[in-house]
Amino acid sequence: MPSKFIRTALIAAASVTLMTLLAPRARALDSGARLWTDTDGGHIAKAQALPDFAELAAKLSPAVVNISTEESEPREGEEGHPEGEYSPPQYGYQRSKSLGSGFIISKDGYILTNDHVVENPSKVTVTLQDGHDYVAKVIGRDTETDVALLKIDAGNDLPVAPLGNSDDLRVGQWVMAIGNPFGFDHSVTVGVVSAKGRFLPDSFDQFIQTDASINPGNSGGPLIDLSGGVIGVNSAIYTRTGQNMGIGFAIPVNLVKQELPQLRDRGKVTRGWLGVRIQKVTPELAESLELKDAQGALVAEVLKNSPAALAGVERGDVIIDYDGHPIRDQRELPLLVARTPLGSTAPFKVVRDKQIMELNATITALPEAELASAETQQKGESEAPAPFGMRVQDLSVGLAHELGLDTGSGVVISSIEPGGRADEAGLQKQDVILEVNRVAVKDIDAYQQAVKAGGKGNIVLLLVKRRDTTLYFALKSEG
Q: Which of 220, 247, 451, 479 is buried most, with the most CB atoms less than 10 Å from its CB?
């Protein structure tokens, strides 16, 4: 029986022989059939130690405040109390309190917070880290960006949280949040910038997304970078439970900086207005309009006497650039227009009939009348079948009046089949179809002929009037 030494030698020799035989095969795999990429060992960055947030928290925490509000409400038995079983009347008012956060931006006591933190209060109380309470005055509010400016008179210089530059943020960089979640004052959480430019439903801002833990009560507190600058105002969380799920959102501080002078001097923000109603360019709309990409802002309506109308914008134009900024998502356009100084002229580009046109508009303030919209109900008359899983009827003069329309021609959608093409495209009952493939339709016969004729690339393009606006819809032809 071979000795242990001999067995070891035999195994080693066999291993060398096997490696020699397999070496050409391994090289062949490396040269042509490998499905992955190896790291370059010579360029691997050295792991960095985690930042020390202790000094940053100690420096900024004194500038973070607790905000509590009180709102008067009728007690049980008083006018306004929900109907229920009888109880003896009681007099006086009970106070409902809400808690939020804020931070001091000037030594004389100006404080930033969220608008929803101080919505309709009878009293706003600010509590500093040292425990001192002050009654605050609401100087200015802006519901669009959810920002509010408060003022307290402390009688001495206050600690300040300096504002940074949110445009310099990079995804993945460290950030720190300070606030009062669930009433636990001056809680510090850390994380990274998860994303930039996030749009949320029914919001005006492009938010900063972070995984720094943000919970109820953090609203209005600062999001801080490693240099100690506030780069965002914590505003919202994404949650299915009511608590933090690792996705929080902050208003970029550069947007807030643009609003602060108006909030201080006028109490509100007046924004630039172009005077167009726009919608998303879907792939189907892009195909119908013969666009190269599904980008830009499709003009569904040009308002009368608006800057856009005076500039020559037409319905169906696609705005692809505004003042040198490419428009990829239609929601970017209102932000850019809002930031344009009133009275200044802004250049922009539109695509019309596959041609790029350069236009100029003198931006004015948004008229108050444009902020209101009306809801109406429809009464049906005779119906006719229509494709795409919907029924339509003629738009009579009386029906147009009931719907608040200034036109007596077109067809009205009287019913939508659930799951049909019209339903999937987003069409709704009571929508008024004005055009099919850029051709006006006055009645059901004209509508059905236009639909039967089809459109470009088997796409039928509908122009629809919905309450106080117009929208384009692209549907695949049937059959």
A: 220
Average pLDDT over residues 167-180: 90
Give the separation between CA 36 and CA 34, rounded to whole angstroms. Answer: 6
How many beta carbons lie within 10 A of that of residue 193, not counting itself?
23
Q: How far apart are CA 247 and CA 244, in angstroms?
A: 7
Cβ–Cβ < 8 Å for 262, 144? no
- As a dihedral over the C-alpha atoms of residue 365, residue 367, residue 372, residue 376, rounded to 10 degrees, the angle is -120
pLDDT digits (tens, 9 = 90+) for 45-78: 555 667 888 999 999 999 999 998 886 554 444 4
Q: Which residues pair with 301 in a beta bridge?
A: 277
Q: pLDDT for 219-246, tens place per residue?
A: 899 999 999 999 999 986 554 455 555 6
Calpha distance 408→422 (Å, rounded): 23
Three-state SS for 23? Answer: helix
Q: Is 359 exposed, middle or buried (0-12, 13-18, 19+ CB in 10 A)?
A: middle
340-390 tens-digit pLDDT: 888 999 999 999 988 999 999 999 987 754 443 322 333 333 444 457 888
**Is residue 146 annotated as a catalytic residue, yes or no?**
yes
Of 219, 235, 306, 414, which is the active-site residue? 219
Name the residue type at position 186: H
Catalytic-role residue among 116, 396, 423, 443: 116
In the set 115, 142, 146, 394, the catalytic residue is 146
- Rounded to an integer, what is the distance from CA 264 to the centroid of its chain? 25
Rounded to an integer, what distance in angstroms lies between the CA atom of residue 4 and that of residue 182?
A: 70
SS3 307: helix
Residues 64, 178 contacting (CB under 8 angstroms): yes
Q: Is 116 a catalytic residue?
A: yes
Which structure tokens are listed for 350?
């539109």
